[in-house]
Design goal:
Chain lengths: 289, 692, 315
């Protein structure tokens, strides 16, 4: 039976409607707005990096490890390169990595999670495979990848991709199991709608939302992976800047030049904060019914 | 909305000195971003000492919020903004929170609707009962001893052993008994019961109602019973308050209300209910429209858009609750207030008088179907033992005929329905469809199955994809029938007209519709493939009473116009009686009785059928004192069905009362013909005819 | 309980076995010849061939795998090319340091995470809810290494109240050892506590909406007792599971933290071994990390089962 208050709440009204509208609703909450604004700013900075710093990230000056000045707001590094410029270019490296590897992981992971619709054995096999990946602590898996591929961009890309697979795969499989039992899915089956059509028309659209939210959550983890591997020297190699790699070298000069780690550290923090806020807002607006 | 809350003292208190609880001019609002919703508006009522007051209404009527307002437990963002709640002379709304807390559970207790969720899953039932005492200052040891007594008192068998069990180890009915034990712990003088039996099966409902009645007699507890079920009210209540749109529209002693209604809503609601003692030759007089959304109440009398007596005054001014006839009855209606009587409804006969009736050849026949619902996953211990939710069932449906399938939850009726349409696979048996009797589960049978048999789901909120418009949902079904794209728009409009919806709604999403409208859409979708047989799986049980009648009427006229056959599944015996030509009663995976509806209802032969009928509450206070057969115990698990007759563990004439009847445990009774023309599976079939 | 363990056993064994296969295959997947890598850049062809024979690389792969697995099970872990010492000795020397760090960090994570979560989940005023939200969001967004670096700058460089580099075993000298342990453990625990706090808070928010809370209110139970007996009790399950899942991440985080605080633990050994392609060491560390992560996860599932009777009895 329905309760008295049911019709008073707008919950029923919120549950459906256009997908775009629900995502926009997430951005209108305080968390969503701050997160999106912050992320927008960081992306803009990264895109404009070559315009803002025409000298690039490798422009070496005479003054190594100089303090803050008008020319170098946060000083220079051990080779006399501007820390602000390197930080922004590092951000560019990080964002490129995140915005390619995380979606790739989401897509492949989701497909692995849905493999059960092709055959039960394939589905079960994929789940076992995801279990194994899940058994590996993130950085340990990253180290294994580095062993095979050597350090660099591709090892980070593969690490972020692989570590995320269980997250998306399990989510997709759980979603599939719930959605397949929905009455409107059964109704379509009773009508005789073909399996594939039922899947694409009724099941998949309802699985996408949690995957998107998870992707936002995983962005934060991916930042940790990049920075973690780079900071121990297994990530992006010099002279290319990345936030983690800068922290790695900067940590050596902590006592003489604290601003060296402050710059990339702050940007990194803003990046994770933006994704954390965004994923929180999405979670509340898109998934809660 | 912005009327100043009036505190009219109801002049209807015929036992003023006896009033234990008196609510005057109660007003409760929910404040949200979209504006203020007044869920309870100027409600006054009184509960007499040791008596049962029923507060009855449909969804959105404000009955639950009223109950919660009394205990000051309105959920956020709701708050009580006006009125008085006088309990033994004290105004509860003015009490401090610590005083209020001391009063909750000790002087006023509450029983909730859903026993599945009302108990904390990680605490033992004994602890949860004892806690109600501990917080009111009883020491642990005494509290535990008293908890055991309480559990025994509410009829938990083997309570000493079960006191340390967890809630999930109890059935729904037993959990509700635990909730009642918790409520009784502080020896309260008032019990507020919010739909205490709605989530339970009929035979369990009868047990709980009987328990509540016994407790009232033994402990002299007054009860405020919130319910949507007029039958429950008639069976249990001394006084009645009828709510609509957040206000009281009628109140008075139960006998008065059921014999003569002073408000058109009460009158029409009672007439719209199908009756177990009436056949279905005439349409139900349904109330048009749907109960109003509390956020958008009509002006004036909230019922006026649906009222057949409405006048101009009703549309502009809210009528006051005024006494009628000096018998303690009161109603809020302008029309009857002037002394006008409510004219009787002329019940339309089925279109054109005679319905075509069952059309001979069987279009759907189920033969000895068994369905294994055990999980198919292999574990380390090998394949699990089969669990037959449906265990050897045969039935058939002809064109224009309705076969009612009755049973309690867990009896396998929905599993059977889903198996027929191919959602579940049968382990044994066949399903034949169409005039040629094609086997539905062969490759050649799939197509005839889909085009012959369609399904109407129970929950209108779950059976439509929220992301697809009505046009898309119907279009998908039309596509399956092979209607070319260009012709679908016209067909969809025709379907909408057919089920009584405006074709202009085609491009809306399901959330824009009420439950009844959604159910109409669900029916339209099933009709889109032009099936011969509809499987209706509890299609009206999730709907408000006034909407139920509309859907039942729709189903009837569709059947008669299109010559459809229905397999109509329900737990409500009166709905089945109204619609069906033949009926089958299921218990634990088997049909125990089947035959023409008149024969089964007038002289039931199986003791389970008798018990079901006798447990179903009738909306009639004169039926209150009839002899009732209340079954003991719960439905056994299909994992481990009793040997011989499956009903013997609860049977009033079986080995429980006649230990010498060993045949019941040793031999399974076959479905055998009885003198009245139906088939019954009982070794002592004729015996019940005498009892009923 | 035994039934529960038996049900989980096949998948646990499968994960562990597959991990050993992956760890075994890693050097063979890597570009280049493991023997050449092991022999060093200046080795002659004969030396490489000798090492290849010594490593058993000439024999069939399956045979090599079972030999290696046998060694793993008997504790015969081979020798490090980098340090020319037995792997077991290298690991044994550094195990204590990493265990200290992860145990300390786990304790901090549980206390801080559950503490902030319960605070947020039982808070009623807007201000305290906002404080709890802000704290957990901030902690969650703070990567461990960044927390480490900030702590180093603040307490080690600016105020110099705690040592920032090196270590002393807690068991040898508790006072000094703990001083060395505090900063790295806090740094490691911070983001994970944020996650735990958020989880506890949201499941408490959810529990507050349950009917059994209403029933408790109707019984006359006070808010504090409802929080403690009904809400928190029902909300800790997800947190326990999360702590188990995060333990693997804790190990991973330790790798980075050990670098920053110059602690001579397994993390540092792992990194230097990866950098110098010291396969014998890396393989053992990978298998070890997975074994620990999987076993801890299993343990938390058991803890979960004792918290929730439905899990315990396999319903």
């Amino acid at each position: 039976m329905t309760t008295d208050t049911e019709t008073t709440s707008g919950a029923a009204r919120r549950e459906s409607g256009g997908a775009v509208r629900r995502y926009l609703a997430a951005l209108r909450t305080p968390r969503g707005a701050i997160g999106a604004g912050l992320l927008g700013l960081l992306v803009l900075l990264a895109v404009l990096a070559p315009v803002l710093f025409p000298g690039g990230y490798d422009d070496q000056g005479d003054n190594a490890l100089a303090g803050a000045s008008g020319a170098h707001w946060m000083g220079t590094d051990e080779l006399g390169r501007d820390i602000v410029a390197r930080t922004i270019f590092g951000l560019r490296t990080d964002l490129t990595l995140l915005l390619t590897a995380v979606p790739a992981s989401a897509v492949i992971g989701t497909l692995m999670g849905l493999a059960g619709v092709i055959s039960r054995w394939l589905g079960a096999g994929m789940q076992r495979l995801l279990d194994v990946i899940l058994g590996f602590p993130g950085i340990v898996l990253g180290m294994s990848v580095v062993l095979v591929l050597g350090t660099g961009w591709s090892a980070l890309f593969v690490s972020i991709l692989v570590i995320g697979l269980p997250l998306f795969g399990r989510q997709a499989r759980a979603g599939l199991q719930v959605e397949q039992e929905r009455e409107y899915v059964l109704a379509a089956r009773v009508l005789g709608v073909r399996r594939r059509t039922v899947l694409t028309r009724h099941v998949l659209p309802n699985i996408v939302d949690p995957i998107v939210v998870n992707a936002a959550v995983y962005m934060v983890v991916a930042v940790f992976i990049e920075a973690g591997l780079s900071i121990v020297g297994l990530g992006i190699q010099p002279p290319i800047p990345s936030l983690g790699a800068m922290l790695n070298t900067g940590a050596r000069y902590l006592e003489v030049h604290p601003a060296y780690v402050m710059g990339p550290g702050l940007v990194l923090l803003l990046l994770t904060l933006a994704f954390t806020l965004l994923s929180n807002a999405l979670n509340k607006a898109v998934l809660r019914r | 909305m912005n009327a100043v809350p009036q505190t009219i003292v109801p002049e209807t208190r015929h036992d003023e000195e006896n009033a234990l609880l008196e609510v005057r001019g109660l007003r409760t609002e929910f404040r949200a971003a979209g504006g203020t919703v007044c869920a309870v508006n100027d409600v006054s009522l009184a509960v007499r000492r040791g008596k049962v007051l029923g507060v009855v209404g449909e969804s959105g009527s404000g009955k639950s919020v009223t109950a919660r307002s009394i205990l000051r437990m309105v959920p956020e963002p709701g708050r009580v903004v006006g009125g008085e709640v006088l309990f033994e002379g004290r105004d509860l709304l003015g009490l401090s929170e610590p005083n209020m807390r001391a009063l909750r559970g000790s002087e006023i207790a509450m029983v909730f609707q859903d026993p599945q969720s009302a108990l904390n899953p990680v605490l033992t039932v004994g602890y949860q009962v004892a806690e109600a005492l501990i917080v009111h200052g009883v020491d642990r040891r005494t509290a535990r001893r008293r908890a055991l007594e309480l559990l025994q008192q509410v009829g938990i068998p083997d309570a000493e052993r079960r006191i340390d069990d967890y809630p999930y180890q109890f059935s729904g009915g037993m959990r509700q008994r635990v909730v009642i034990a918790i409520a009784l712990a502080g020896s309260p003088s008032l019990l507020i019961a919010d739909e205490p039996t709605t989530a339970l099966d009929v035979t369990i409902q009868a047990q709980i109602l009987r328990l509540l009645g016994r407790l009232r007699d033994e402990l002299d507890i007054a009860v405020l019973m919130i319910t949507h079920d007029m039958g429950v009210v008639a069976e249990t209540c001394d006084d009645v308050v009828v709510m609509y749109g957040g206000r009281v529209v009628e109140q008075g002693p139960a006998e008065m209300i059921f014999s003569r209604q002073e408000h058109p809503y009460t009158a029409d609601l009672l007439k719209a209910m199908p009756r177990m003692d009436e056949d279905g030759m005439r349409r139900l007089p349904a109330i048009p429209g749907a109960p109003p959304d509390p956020a958008a109440l009509p002006s004036g009398c909230a019922f006026h858009p649906r009222c057949r007596l409405a006048e101009d005054e009703c549309r502009t001014t809210v009528p006051e609750l005024a006494p009628r006839g000096g018998t303690g009855q009161a109603a809020a209606c302008w029309v009857t207030g002037r002394g006008a009587a409510i004219p009787p409804l002329d019940r339309a006969p089925a279109d054109g008088g005679d319905r075509p009736g069952p059309g001979g050849t069987s279009l759907l026949s189920v033969e000895n179907v068994r369905v294994n619902v055990a999980s198919e996953r292999r574990s380390l211990f090998g394949r699990p033992d089969p669990v037959y939710a449906v265990d050897g069932v045969s039935l058939s449906v002809a064109g224009g005929e309705t076969v009612g399938l009755v049973g309690e939850s867990g009896c396998g009726k929905s599993t059977l329905a889903r198996t027929i349409v191919g959602i579940n696979r049968p382990a044994e048996g066949t399903v034949r469809v169409g005039p040629d009797g094609v086997d539905a589960f062969t490759g050649a049978g799939t197509r005839p199955l889909r085009s012959t048999v369609q399904y109407v789901f129970q929950d209108p909120y779950a059976s439509l994809n929220p992301r697809r418009t009505v046009r898309q949902s119907l279009g998908e079904a039309l596509e399956m029938r092979g209607v070319p794209r260009g012709a679908r728009a016209a067909e969809a409009s025709e379907l909408m007209r057919r089920v009584g919806l405006n074709e202009g709604y085609l491009d809306r999403y399901p959330h824009a519709f009420s439950g009844g409208q959604r159910q109409r859409i669900g029916i339209a979708r099933a009709l889109a493939v032009q099936p011969k047989v509809l499987i209706c799986d509890e299609p009206v049980s999730a709907l408000d009473v006034s909407i139920q009648a509309q859907i039942i009427n729709l189903l009837e006229s569709l059947r008669d116009d299109l010559g459809l056959g229905y397999l109509f599944i329900a737990h409500d015996l009166s709905v089945v009686r109204h619609l069906s030509d033949r009926v089958a009663v299921m218990y634990l995976g088997k049909i125990v009785e089947t035959g023409p509806v008149d024969a089964v209802y007038s002289s039931p032969q199986h003791p389970y059928t008798v018990a079901l009928m006798s447990s179903s509450p009738a909306p009639d206070t004169t039926a209150r004192d009839r002899e009732r057969i209340v079954l003991t115990g719960d439905l056994p698990s299909p994992k481990n069905p009793p040997s011989g007759c499956r009903f013997r563990t609860r049977c009033p004439i079986g080995p429980l009362t006649h230990p010498e009847r060993r045949i019941c445990a040793e031999e399974e009774p076959p479905l055998a013909e009885t003198p009245h023309g139906q088939l019954a599976a009982c070794h002592f079939a004729s015996e019940m005819a005498v009892l009923s | 309980m035994i039934r529960f363990l038996l049900r989980r056993l096949p998948s646990v064994v499968f994960v562990l076995l597959t991990t050993t296969v992956i760890a075994f295959l890693l050097p063979r997947l890597a570009p280049g010849d493991p023997a050449a890598v092991a022999a060093g850049p200046e080795a002659t062809q004969q030396q490489i061939a000798a090492i290849r024979a010594e490593m058993g690389l000439n024999r069939p792969l399956v045979e090599q795998y079972f030999d290696w697995l046998g060694g793993l099970l008997t504790g015969n872990l081979g020798e490090s090319y980098q340090f020319h010492r037995p792997v077991s000795e290298l690991i044994g020397a550094r195990l204590g340091s990493t265990v200290e760090l992860t145990v300390a960090a786990t304790l901090i994570m549980i206390v801080a995470g559950v503490g902030v979560g319960v605070f947020g989940g039982s808070a009623r005023s807007r201000l305290s809810r906002f404080t709890a939200d802000a704290t957990s969001t901030g902690m969650l967004a703070m990567p461990p290494f960044l927390a480490g670096l900030l702590l180093v700058i603040l307490l080690g460089v600016t105020f110099r109240v705690l040592p920032i580099s090196g270590e002393v075993a807690v068991l040898d000298d508790p006072v000094i050892g703990l001083q060395y342990l505090v900063l790295p453990a806090v740094a490691l625990a911070v983001p994970m506590s944020g996650g735990i706090a958020m989880l506890v808070q949201s499941s408490m928010d959810n529990a507050w909406r349950q009917d059994y809370v209403d029933l408790a209110v109707a019984k006359g139970v006070g808010r504090r007792r409802i929080t403690a007996r009904h809400v928190v009790r029902n909300s800790l399950g997800p947190a326990v599971v999360a702590i188990g899942i995060r333990f693997g991440e804790m190990l991973a985080g330790a790798v980075v933290i050990e670098m920053i605080f110059a602690r001579n633990g397994l993390g540092q050994l792992a990194v230097s071994s990866v950098q110098s392609a010291d396969y014998n060491v890396v393989q053992v560390i990978i298998v070890g990390a997975v074994v620990i992560a999987v076993v801890v996860q299993l343990l938390t599932e058991i803890a979960m089962a004792t918290l929730d009777p439905r899990v315990r009895l396999g319903v």
